[in-house]
Design brief:
The protein has 14 helices and no strands. It is mostly helical. Pfam families: Haem_oxygenas_2.
Length: 357
């Protein structure tokens, strides 16, 4: 994966450092989060013209910060071409990442209401109630019945940022658990990784979907093409996964992920069939209809319920992680559906939907 184009002073400085051999550097002295918006490329490649509401739906400084945080996290996954692997634990990068994480945690707190902490035995019921109360717009219903081929391709481009490393962020939780919750997480992750069969790994199935739509299926090919709201979906998983004190939120996030998967994936498969997608392109979605219905029960009861029994003081964190997953999914759906209603592309770079391998 190549480093994408910078989106502001933070990523401009960070990327300039990363292409050099590992060394110490001072973080940018100016506050990168409170400044004016930077122009972004709309469907025509021009600035949106509104300094307070860029065409991506967030401030330019947020775009800069989300991309910088994503790149810092990606050093713990597959890294970047031309970037030395030793940057992963470089103290200067970690210091910058800490600043970005502090900003991101505040960003989440302003958008996600923290649910009240239930009694440990009530965690499964509280998770179900939280999911049932979610009233965000249905992106899957739109793509099943109304979305056109270009919009479905855009959706897949967005999702590729996480789906091509599906399950990896939640796997960070395995060494941080004991007993029944650990066994439950391993059971879920084993299915995500194809039960030891590479061709059945969910990331590989998603590659088949991308190829079926004429998209570049290489890892991170569209990183420079997606807006901050898409990056935030991956960033929250990495934030929770890479910090032991967020392990309860990580489990709650995964539970909400599984609880809201089966029906939407059925709809995505139906929409792709309507648009001419063959069985190979739809297999990713069809696989999740059945698998995630099973994963939901494991995640809610054997993983979150058992963890709550072991750690009664952390039940509120479980619910907060679930609320973060639901809120970011709602923001993502609102972004795509809002742009499509206006007849505009939902991507950061308008040419991304026609870029193929």
């Amino acid at each position: 994966m190549q480093l994408p184009a910078p989106r502001g002073p933070l990523t401009d400085r960070l990327f300039a450092e990363l292409v050099r051999p590992p060394h110490g550097f001072d973080p940018p002295p100016a506050d990168p989060y409170g400044g004016p918006c930077s122009p972004c490329g709309g469907p025509s490649g021009d600035s949106c013209g509104d300094p307070c509401d860029p065409c991506d739906g967030s401030s330019g400084s947020e775009e800069d910060a989300q991309l910088a945080l994503f790149v810092c996290y990606e050093l713990h996954y597959q890294g970047f071409d031309g970037v030395d692997d030793r940057w992963e634990w470089n103290p200067s990068v970690l210091a910058l990442r800490e600043r970005l994480e502090t900003w991101f945690e505040g960003w989440l707190a302003r958008r996600v209401s923290r649910p009240p902490a239930p009694q440990p035995r009530e965690v499964p019921r509280a998770l179900a109630a939280l999911v049932a109360a979610d009233d965000g717009p249905s992106l899957s219903a739109y793509l099943r019945g109304r979305g056109d081929a270009a919009q479905f391709r855009e959706f897949v481009v967005h999702r590729s940022i996480y789906q091509l490393k599906e399950a990896d962020p939640h796997t960070w939780g395995i060494p941080r658990l004991l007993g029944r919750p650990k066994a439950a997480l391993v059971e879920i992750q084993s299915d995500e990784y194809g039960g030891g069969r590479p061709e059945r790994m969910h990331a590989e199935l998603f590659r088949a979907t991308m190829r079926g739509l004429g998209l570049d299926d290489s890892y991170g090919a569209y990183l420079g093409s997606v807006p901050g709201v898409t990056l935030a979906i991956s960033n929250v998983m990495s934030l929770f996964g890479l910090h032991r004190h967020h392990r309860a939120a990580l489990l709650g996030h995964l539970a909400a992920f599984e609880m809201t998967s089966s029906l939407p994936n059925r709809r995505y498969s139906q929409g792709l069939r309507r648009l001419g997608g063959d069985a190979g392109a739809r297999r990713y979605y069809d696989e999740h209809v059945q698998a995630d219905a099973v994963h939901e029960q494991i995640a809610v009861h054997d993983m979150c319920g058992a963890f709550a029994a072991q750690h009664p003081a952390m039940t509120g964190d479980i619910l907060y992680g679930a609320a973060c997953a639901l809120t970011l999914d709602r923001l993502f759906a609102e972004h795509l559906l809002g742009r499509w209603r206006e007849g505009r592309a939902s991507l950061w770079r308008a040419d991304a939907e026609v870029t193929t391998r």
